[in-house]
Amino acid sequence: MKKILYLVPILSLLTGCWDQSMLNQTKLITAGGFDYTKSGKVITTAAIPQAVAAEAGQRNTENQIFSASGFTARQSRLRLDRKVSERLEASKNQIIVFGEDAAKKISTTYWMFFIEILNRHLMQN
């Protein structure tokens, strides 16, 4: 019994942050959009803030716009991930825009896509 009493505090010291996401290894999506192309593919667009050179004491950021298309929202998101060197993180997304065609055809596919992103973010924290 005494061994267990000594073992529990020691084991609690061995825990740590093993699944953290470093900010310098990710790109934060602040706005995103979905629409359909004329051929019926889903096009995903993301705005990602990027720091640009400025004078001393000033902070300037510009949004970089990336787009990718695929047969599903997930496929277009995976293709979007491949266009950016860092890992895309949508947990800080502030705006989601649906094009007219996407709004008419909206289905659980889009909602499952966002739930998957939120679950991934919640599991990291």
Automatic annotation (TrEMBL):
GO BP of this protein: spore germination
Spore germination protein N-terminal domain ranges (all copies): 19-106
PROSITE patterns named in the record: PROKAR_LIPOPROTEIN
Domain of life of the organism encoding this protein: Bacteria
Pfam families recorded: Spore_GerAC_N (PF25198)
InterPro entries: GerAC_N, Spore_GerAC-like
A single cellular component GO annotation: membrane
Classification via PANTHER family: SPORE GERMINATION PROTEIN B3 (PTHR35789:SF1)
Protein's recorded name: Spore germination protein N-terminal domain-containing protein
Organismal lineage: Bacteria, Bacillati, Bacillota, Bacilli, Bacillales
